[in-house]
Amino acid sequence: MNHLSTGVEAAVPAAAVDVDAVVVGAGQAGLSAAYHLRRAGLEADRDFVVLDHAPRPGGAWQFRWPSLTYGRVHGMHALPGMELTGADGDRPSAEVIGEYFARYEDAFGLRVHRPVHVAAVREGDGGRLRVETSEGPYATRTLINATGTWDRPFWPRYPGQETFRGRQLHTAQYAGPGEFAGLRVVVVGGGASGTQHLLEIAEVAAGTTWVTRREPVWREGPFGQDEGRAAVALVEERVRRGLPPRSVVSVTGLPLNDALREARERGVLDRLPMFDRVTPSGVAWDDGRAVAADAILWATGFRAALDHLAPLRLREPGGGVRMDGTRTVRDERIHLVGYGPSASTIGANRAGRAAVRQVTELLARVPAAA
Fold it and tell me: pTM of the full predicted structure?
């Protein structure tokens, strides 16, 4: 269906399309939710709609750098109802997972609308939410938000950043190590992406410097279900209190593998504390140390992409959205999946199922307005 309006109609508010549920985002969490909506008996483009701003299937995976092959992906969990089998580990993860998501959407008739930009979600008429999008408005009884974090790269601010004569870029712009050949590179960030970038760049750069805010925590040995549950519980406690979520990896530590051990022996993982300022030619510390650099790569993570929900005033004074499971405490009609403790592939699957269970209970309990 087509809800695009012409310039002539712009002065007249478009009539909203009525649905029971809108899913915003078609990454792992959004597709999981859409799958469970179908299993609950709802039909795509009749009872619910899935909106995705990306140009093609694959969620945030489609934007990953080519050197991140499928074989190097950590902990990719299959979507519900369809395994990912026979994938070539040497192919880029963006291709493998993008093709898998496309097959999944087709197999289960999810009819994802893309590219569609959701500008705002606000209170509508008759107890419904009004979802304002680039293809026109929707009036929905419930909303499952699965927008992830990729669209909101976090750039910390340091004195002198604007004076740096080299190149500054974020993980979201990273295209692979080749562009750093022969350069002196500062990699900022102690997460999984930071260490992956560092190891790749060190193979081709004239020199690398690794800088992190906190001392990296390395994890050796097996990481079982008990450890996983404990880590998720720590993240869940923050969102229950209305604080911004931390990533799961921030509480699990970084798993040591052979490549990281070898890099540590070579000194690639010799970490420096966070610098105090950026200079035109590099970075510097207040104790007099300085490092010359041609490029600074900020592997400093992402924040939840929730700006379109701002009209609903869901945020708490602590800066986060207080949650009860996947449901926002301030509005039972709205669920966040792939947020906080469910910001992992297996967590996203479980969150999609949990959200749909509560959504269908709400739809049965609260009759649609006439």
Answer: 0.83
